[in-house]
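How it folds
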Amino acid sequence: MISSVEAQFISLIISTFAGITVGLLFDLYRMINYYVRPLKGFQHFMDLLFWIITGLAVFTILLRADFAMLRIYTFVGISAGVFIYFKLFTQYVLKFYIGVIGTAIKIIRIIIIFSILPFKLLYNLIWTPVNFLKKAVIRFYKTSISKIGSSLKKDTKK
């Protein structure tokens, strides 16, 4: 099936966008790896998952654009897209990802604090009087023992 030059050019442009998508996914993967710091065994699983997701994304883009016909300009476009992405956009996207992840972490911390706060208040409400009573009982016990001990000493001296 022979494609027109215009269709091939559009396919090249779409392949370039597929390469940019690969770069976006790779930077997302890098950020997840940086914040999660997975164990070595899980790292291999994440690598495999990254390539499966990336392959499916590129395949879907190429399938919709050119019925997944792989020509040399498809590979050139994907390579050019990855190159363009890493030369022009990666630093800005990484800053954006860091901002989004930082904001998400702050929101999660706030949610955790507000979900734990009622339990802390309830704990303090219950245990503060209990601790006060415990200290009072211990103080009473010590003073009683010392008084009994001193009265026993007086009785033994007689």
Observations:
- The two ends are 123 Å apart (CA to CA).
- The helical segments are 5-36, 40-66, 72-157.
- The chain has a mean pLDDT of 86.
- Residues 5-126 form one domain.
